[in-house]
Amino acid sequence: MRFHTVTRDDLPLLYRLNRQMAESEGQGELFVAECGEYTRAFAGGRPPVRAWLVLEGEEPLGFILWQEKFASYLGKMTLYVEDLWLGEQTDEIPLVEAVLDELLARADAMGYPRVEIRRLEWNGIDADVLQSRGFESVEKWKVWRRGK
User: Model confidence over 87-141: pLDDT tens digits?
Assistant: First the structure.
């Protein structure tokens, strides 16, 4: 298993994988993005969002879509994982552990003091695996959203 930084050439694949994730989560109707929007978001000098493809050999297993987020109490940028999806392998704990270990090693190497990730309660990474890697559930916050 290895990470591959998404380039402009990888955007159609990332787009397809993200659509597959939405459909596998029963939320296909919410996926309204166009591939061109991915190009605008991921391409350029300092893109607001970044991604790694998770590959086994040359085969994509899934992806990690992430961005920087400012933590006001820390006064520093942190790494926020918007999506971590490994297709049908999401419940394969050794793979998930290896992916999280690589993600955390990269975050440490890039100097991020915090990594945040959301997880679906019914179709996501096992909570015990996240806890084993030092993640804690933040119960005091409730996500509020306007729009889709």
Answer: 988 788 999 999 999 999 999 999 999 999 988 776 678 889 999 999 998 888 8
Compute the distance between CA of residue 20 and CA of residue 57 in angstroms, rounded to an integer. 20
- What is the set of domains in the chain, with CATH numbers? 2-132 (3.40.630.30)
CA angle, residues 124, 126, 128, in degrees to nearest 5: 150
Vertex 116, ends 148 and 91: CA angle to 5°?
A: 80
DSSP string over 39-78: HHHH-SSS-S-EEEEEEETTEEEEEEEEEEEEETTTTEEE
Tokens (6 digits) for 118: 């959301």
